[in-house]
C-alpha cells in the first residue's frame, strides 16, 4: 500500500495522558533481557502479581507466548530475530501509550536489538533490566532442555552456545538469580517500577 493512501487518525484519538489519568498510573516498559533460563519469565510473573496486588494494571509480553501468536511465522535467522523484536517493541509501545505497565521478557541478545526497541518505545519509557545469571547456572537449570539440544547440535544459532549474547552496556538494574532469591530480585524490580510510576513511588 502506498503511503499517500494511508491516513492516520492519531490527532483525533484520546491522548496518552487521558488513558493514564483514567487508570491512575503511568505507562512504562520494563525490558528483561538475559540468557535462556536466567529467570526472566519467573521474575516477570512474580512482578506482575506484586503490581496487581497494588492495584496497578500491567501486561507481560513473553518470548514463547509471542512466538505462539503474532510472531508464529518467524524463525531464528538474523533477519527474523530483528523482526521479532521490532514487532514486540511496537506492541509494547501501544500498551505503554495506553498507560499500562508492560513487562517484556526476551533474550534480545544484542545491544543493537535492544537499542531498536528503545527507539520505538521511547527512551523515557524504557527500563532495561539485565537478568545476569551466568551461563553455567542457566545451563545447569536447563528448564526447557534447550541447552542439551544445542550442545548436541540440534538447535543452531542458540544464544550462549553457538550464538553470542551481548551484555547490556547501561542497564538500570542487574539481577543475578544465582545469587539473589526470588523475593530479593522481585523486591528490587518492584522498587524500580514504583519509583518510575511517579516520584513518590505511588500511583499517580
Report the CATH superfamily: P-loop containing nucleotide triphosphate hydrolases
Strand order of the largest sheet: 2-3-1-4-5
Largest sheet: 5 strands, parallel
Which structural category do the helix and sheet elements fall into? alpha/beta
What are the secondary-structure elements, in order, as H or E?
HEHEHHEHEHHEH
Percent of residues in beta strands: 5-15%
Task: Count every helix, treating DSSP H or I runs of 4 or more residues as helices.
Answer: 8
The CATH architecture can be given as 3-Layer(aba) Sandwich
Unreliable stretches (pLDDT < 50, length at least 5) are 199-204
Tell me the total number of β-strands.
Answer: 5
Describe the structure.
The protein has 204 residues and is of the alpha/beta class. 43% of the residues lie in helices and 12% in strands. The chain has a single domain (15-195), classed as Rossmann fold, CATH 3.40.50.300. Helix 4 (78-97) runs parallel beside helix 5 (111-121). The chain is globular. Mean pLDDT is 89; it is low at 199-204. It contains 8 helices and 5 strands; from the N terminus they run H-E-H-E-H-H-E-H-E-H-H-E-H.
Keywords for this structure?
five-stranded parallel β-sheet, Rossmann fold, 204 residues, 8 helices, alpha/beta
In brief, what are we looking at here?
This protein is 43% helix and 12% strand. It is an alpha/beta fold and 204 residues long. The protein has a single domain, classed as 3-Layer(aba) Sandwich (Rossmann fold).
Sequence-ordered SSE layout with sheet pairings:
Layout (H helix, E strand, L loop, with lengths): L15 H8 L4 E6 L6 H14 L4 E5 H5 L10 H20 L3 E5 L5 H11 L4 E6 L3 H7 L4 H6 L21 E3 L6 H16 L7
Parallel strand pairs: 1-3, 1-4, 2-3, 4-5
Helix pairs in contact: 2-8, 4-5
Amino acid at each position: 500500500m502506498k503511503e499517500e493512501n494511508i491516513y492516520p487518525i492519531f490527532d483525533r484519538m484520546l491522548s496518552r495522558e487521558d488513558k493514564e489519568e483514567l487508570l491512575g498510573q503511568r505507562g512504562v516498559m520494563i525490558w528483561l533481557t538475559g540468557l535462556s533460563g536466567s529467570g526472566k519469565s519467573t521474575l516477570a510473573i512474580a512482578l506482575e502479581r506484586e503490581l496487581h496486588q497494588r492495584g496497578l494494571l500491567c501486561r507481560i509480553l513473553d518470548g514463547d507466548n509471542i512466538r505462539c501468536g503474532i510472531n508464529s511465522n518467524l524463525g531464528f535467522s538474523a533477519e527474523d530475530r530483528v523482526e521479532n523484536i521490532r514487532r514486540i517493541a511496537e506492541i509494547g509501545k501501544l500498551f505503554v501509550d495506553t498507560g499500562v505497565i508492560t513487562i517484556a521478557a526476551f533474550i534480545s541478545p544484542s545491544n543493537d536489538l535492544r537499542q531498536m526497541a528503545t527507539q520505538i518505545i521511547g527512551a523515557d519509557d524504557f527500563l532495561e533490566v539485565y537478568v545476569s545469571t551466568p551461563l553455567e547456572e542457566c545451563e545447569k537449570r536447563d528448564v526447557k532442555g534447550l541447552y542439551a539440544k544445542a550442545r548436541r547440535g540440534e538447535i543452531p544459532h542458540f544464544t550462549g552456545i553457538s550464538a553470542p549474547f551481548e551484555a547490556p552496556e547501561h542497564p538500570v538494574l542487574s539481577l543475578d538469580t544465582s545469587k539473589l532469591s526470588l523475593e530479593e530480585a522481585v523486591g528490587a524490580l518492584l522498587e524500580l517500577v514504583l519509583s518510575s510510576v511517579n516520584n513518590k513511588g505511588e500511583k499517580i
